[in-house]
Design goal:
This protein is an alpha/beta fold. Helix content is 36%, strand content 14%. The chain contains 14 helices and 14 strands. It has a ten-stranded mixed sheet. Strand 3, helix 3 and strand 4 form a beta-alpha-beta unit. The chain starts with 6 loop residues before the first strand and ends in a 24-residue tail after the last helix.
């Protein structure tokens, strides 16, 4: 049997965080760990087991440690200095990298200097300008966190720390696509991730966790969830700016996903890979789950104090979970022309009913189709440019030349793409 490497999202604080984002799906996981009120920190013993086992579980020389939460920085700098020491102890010549996702509240010059010294890649959570960011990303007293994040971003730039931004796209900001994108670019972000916010709330009288997983019918869509088609439109509006101005200058993860798919390259995001199952989540006590979005008792693989990460990652449960992604596609998915790019999306979102009445369809399907259809011509062009040895950013020159060639008086001419339509009804829209 093939031995699989794995990605582990480690949560040294579990769900404990220093802010109270209204839409956070992970805060309520403390219900799974009643002891967390007194003992929420990852212990020295668990940390050492994790570092050693994660390195041993990787078949390649590259090892990535991903630190998330909750909020990992509330562990303190001493914890992460210990992380570096243990990586040096067990590294065995491997190339070890660290990525840390943060809300930025704790960051200081000391933190920034540490990140710079040890080449941490920092993911900074920010939902756009202040009037959008502060809608949900608030302190326990309800105060907005925008200025804290902006101060953190300035620190990262001052200390030349590599960073990307993570923007949750929900009902609060989906209608502000251009404003959100222009804000992130002007703030200095050159690597941008957009995460669609989709959650369902249990309607059962007794439920340990209120935010439910697919398969549970007693649930209703959370009011902050992004409407499906509008999510696709959000991506489309940003793509239209990016493809004409920012190719090669700004990396937008979803556009990278699409270009990889159109070019026949491996997916750069698990959400749109054919199968999943080897992107695990580690709780602070050593419990290992199938996925960050499936931290539910039935998806617990085991505990690293009793079985190794390598063993759990290659267990039948982990492999079955991963294969289920491609084995449970609806007929619409199987027949879809964009399956090569989408692969049915994240299993977490497969709670909708397809047009043929089949349960288990992805809630975001309409949005994904809207997006993939919109970008098809430009993706084909970039793919062909790259195949011919040209950089993808040449597309910006081509699109700019088209604008000059097709002035208002030429809008009734046949479109150059060969569709047979008039330019104004085709690429000139």
């Amino acid at each position: 049997m093939a031995v699989h490497g794995c990605h582990v999202m480690a949560k040294p604080t579990g769900s404990v965080c220093n802010i109270d984002c209204s839409y956070c799906f992970y805060l309520e996981k403390d219900a799974l760990y009643p002891e967390r009120k007194q003992n929420w920190r990852m212990s020295e013993e668990t940390l050492e087991q994790y570092i050693r086992q994660h390195i041993e579980a990787q078949p390649s020389q590259q090892v990535l440690f991903a630190w998330q939460g909750g909020e990992p920085t509330i562990m303190g700098l001493s914890f992460f200095r210990r992380v570096i020491a243990l990586c040096n102890k067990y590294g065995g010549g491997r190339q070890i990298q660290h990525a840390l996702q943060t809300n930025g509240i704790q960051l200081s010059p000391e933190w920034a200097a540490f990140f710079a010294e040890h080449n941490f890649l920092i993911g900074l959570s920010i939902d756009g300008p202040q009037h959008l960011h502060d809608t949900y990303r608030v302190t326990r007293s309800g105060a907005g966190t925008y200025q804290h994040v902006i101060d953190a971003l300035k620190l990262l730039k001052t200390y030349s720390v590599a960073f990307n931004t993570l923007t949750v796209v929900g009902k609060h900001n989906v209608g502000y696509a251009a404003e959100v994108y222009e804000f992130l670019v002007s703030a200095g972000s050159r690597h941008i991730q957009f995460i669609p916010l989709v959650e369902r709330i249990s309607t059962a009288d007794v439920a340990l966790l209120k935010l439910v997983q697919p398969g549970e019918s007693a649930a209703t869509l959370a009011p902050w969830s992004v409407p499906s088609w509008q999510y696709g439109e959000f991506l489309n509006k940003i793509f239209d700016i990016w493809v004409r101005r920012d190719v090669g200058r700004v990396s937008v993860q979803m556009f990278d996903v699409a270009l990889a798919a159109w070019s026949g390259q491996p997916p750069v995001l698990c959400v749109h890979s054919e199968n999943c199952g080897h992107a695990l989540a580690l709780e602070s006590n050593g419990d290992l789950y199938n996925c960050d979005h499936f931290v539910y008792p039935e998806h617990l693989l085991g505990n690293i104090h009793r079985q190794t990460i390598k063993t759990l990652n290659n267990s039948e449960q982990a492999i079955t979970f991963g294969r289920a992604k491609s084995e449970t596609l609806t007929q619409e998915c199987l027949q879809c022309k964009y399956r090569f790019a989408c692969h049915g999306g994240c299993p977490k979102h497969r709670f909708a009913i397809s047009m043929s009445g089949q349960l288990g369809h992805n809630y975001l399907c309409a949005g994904y189709k809207h997006f993939f259809k919109h970008i098809g011509r430009e993706m084909n062009l970039m793919r062909d440019l790259m195949a011919a040895g040209y950089p993808a950013d040449i597309i910006m020159q081509i699109l700019a030349r088209e604008v000059k060639l097709y002035q208002p008086g030429s809008r009734n001419a046949s479109c150059h793409c060969g569709s047979g339509k008039k330019y104004k009804n085709c690429c000139g829209k």
